[in-house]
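Reviewer 2 asked us to include a model.

Predict the structure of this chain.
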Amino acid sequence: MTGADAPTGAPCHRRAAVPVRVFALGPWPGRPQHEPPERRRYPRAVTPEHDARAAEDAPPYRFTHAGATVVVEETGSGDRTFVLVHGIGMGRRVFGDLTDVLRAHGRVIAIDQPGYGAAPEPVRTLTMERTADLLAAFLRYRRPPGIVLVGHSMGTQVVTEITARHPDLAEGIVLVAPTVDIEARSAARQLGRLARDLAVESPVVLVKGAQEYLHAGPNLRRKMHAMLAHRPEDAYGRIDAPALVLRGENDYVSPRGWCETVVALLRDGRLAEVAGHGHETMIRDPRPAAEHILEFSDGL
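Predicted model (structure tokens):
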């Protein structure tokens, strides 16, 4: 138990009702520290000793590295692992329906980035590069087989940096509705495009999105700044892994011209579209997107 996480006034020997193991990597990455969880959210642990190939539907758990924490949820099993990285204001729960489809074809790991979903706010808002290094540290520690990184919206920027900075980790990547279009790299233009996109979305998308934005906390403005400050086009050309760029046909946030630019900058990129869908294509109806993801992963 670290002093920062210990409950005030609680004796050190106090035992939680249902224990959990939390992984904290500091200067010695091979030595995990075990800290008490929030009991309601994290009823028990996934330990690093578990075989990543074994079938398991584990409760969410935390992973901490260099002072920042993610929350991880795993389901399914197999030699293929889909790692789902959400966009700004979202969290791992928006991938629930997509997870239900993909888990029949392999392991699915869904992540709450620091300050989103159930993950605590970091002391400082992370850049895309630092978030990428955090997730790379988690993947090296967990060592799941056959990784395909799937990022949505801002999550594509994180996936891009993971693959450019840590080229040995992923067998392939899927960039769903990649951001940020170089022609609209301001908060006002991004929010305007998003409002136009959401104006025709289903109530399910609107409700889920609103719930997750509330969880994103008071630092959303700083998170938006970190997203807009990033230059993904500087990293695309350093990616050797095969890449699928996937967009909804009616996506105003990630227009076709921008996606074609992304594909052109990638060394091994291809473009696919989901007819009749917008920016939140994986939330509205994940099946068409899942079909593209599975077809791509089968070809790796």
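The chain has a mean pLDDT of 80. The CA atoms of residues 236 and 266 lie 5 Å apart. We have added this to the supplementary material.
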